[in-house]
# Entry
Amino acid sequence: MKRVVFLLLVATTLFTISSTGFAQPVLEIVGGNIVALDTLYRGQIVERVVTLRNAGNQTLLIGEILTSCGCTGTVVSTDRLTPGSTGSLKVTLNAKSFSGPVKKAVTVKSNDPAHPATVIELTGFVVQQFEVDPQSFWFKNAEVGRPTSASVTLRNAGKVPVKLLKFSTALEGLTVTLPTDDVLPGKQVTITATLKAVKEMSVISDGVHIATTSSAQPEVYIPVFGTARAFRFE
# Structure
């Protein structure tokens, strides 16, 4: 009798271990954990859709989704996947601040016991049709109410003429003078920004968006940095 009880206990223990080991959700990234973005142009916003699949036999719960920088955004279609079902994760990358090789990570947290934090890598290479030197407008000690100018040169590194159409900025008091003629391949033009600050700012951190006729890079983004202080009469 004792032997029978012992065998029953062993069988129950093995069944519990087996159930615990195999009855669980499993997060699978369909197509693999590396998403190739290929060649991007600086200023381009790209979007990819990643398929998430529950390869386990219990409900998969999607938790927090983290990105390695503010340039990357995510939207998930559902936070609950039944066994065998799939959902989508839309990932966007804004390449306005990059050049050369780029690698970003998206971390998906879930109740998958084997992989509670699954990392998806975004890889690509950012090229510039437009080369800007220096790479930002810099206003050092601009004075409130008095116009201060800063200039950059923009070179068309592409193979076709491009026209600079218009600019936009959220920085109050900033205007930009654009050339009226096309920028020919291999040629450069001067772009001048003028700031007439409306208030004191210990730190200016903004930017200028310039729309272009280039299909490869329809927008050029130029950061704006500096400070603005009260007008000093001397």
In short: The chain has two domains: 25-127, 130-229. The radius of gyration is 27 Å. The first helix runs from residue 2 to 22. The chain is about 10% helix and 55% strand.
